[in-house]
Amino acid sequence: MSFTVYLSGEIHTDWRDEIQRGAEAAGLDIVFTAPVTDHPASDAAGDHLGETSSQFWRDHQSSKINAIRTRTLIEKSDFVVVRFGDKYKQWNAAFDAGYCAALGKPYATLHDEDIVHPLKEVDAGAQGWCKTTNQVVETLRYVLQG
Length: 146
Hints:
Elements: E1 3-9, H1 15-25, E2 30-33, H2 39-43, H3 55-76, E3 79-83, H4 91-103, E4 107-110, H5 120-125, E5 128-130, H6 133-145
Parallel strand pairs: 1-2, 1-3, 3-4, 4-5
């Protein structure tokens, strides 16, 4: 079986690379997709549309352009991994998880135990909660190979 997996969330560590390397080492037939992970580029996604009167409107404009990619890739995916890191509040990742839930798209969360409480609703909608990238790879291995 082949799978397309969207890797959503935290952009400041190499968790995506760890999952991709693990899936490759396990011989899994997976195409990975992701949002734009270059933070300044993501923040500037809508700048080509013209000057804005405030930071709010710049963020609003860029978030709409980013949403084209995010929504399209989530909709085309078979499975989504939503990563919550410990440094920043990733509201966009929570939104992606909610979007998956609304679509009936299976997803798993990836985060440490110290943020279980604030993510209780997000985790409740997920098909799994992983604490490590190895657990994500093992989940994918099981789903694809049984």
